[in-house]
Amino acid sequence: MAGRRFLILLADFKDQEEPNPDVLVKQLDLALDWVRLTPSSWLLYTSKDAKTWYARFRKVSEDSRVFISQVNGSEKSGYMPKMVWEFIRRHQDEVREG
């Protein structure tokens, strides 16, 4: 389980329409698991690094601004839907082991 982590992917589609959902989901499904936080942000559970995910996201939307960073899920606070908290709890132990 080494190397598993949470990454946050934030996108700004500028004046563009959101990318084709089928293409977007196809790339996101390359993660071990993922959850959509907002219309343009996702929390990924993955064994790949931010550079790999940047390359993958460029296939979805070449002109978007993108920020991808590792997230420490052990220090968290906020108000999100229950499914987001369940997502984090489901993978938290595996992230700590990595």
List its traits.
alpha+beta, single chain, 3 helices, 28% strand, Alpha-Beta Plaits, 98 residues
CATH architecture: 2-Layer Sandwich
The main pleated sheet reads as: 4 strands, antiparallel
Number of strands: 4
Count every helix, treating DSSP H or I runs of 4 or more residues as helices: 3
On the 0 to 100 scale, the average pLDDT is 89
CATH third-tier fold name: Alpha-Beta Plaits
Structure description:
With about 100 residues, this protein is of the alpha+beta class. The chain has a single domain, classed as Alpha-Beta Plaits (2-Layer Sandwich), CATH 3.30.70. The protein is about 35% helix and about 30% strand. It is built from three helices and four strands. The model has no long low-confidence stretch (mean pLDDT about 90).
Question: Which SSEs are present, and which pair or pack?
Answer:
Layout: E1 5-12, H1 21-28, E2 33-38, E3 41-46, H2 50-58, E4 65-71, H3 82-97
Antiparallel strand pairs: 1-3, 1-4, 2-3
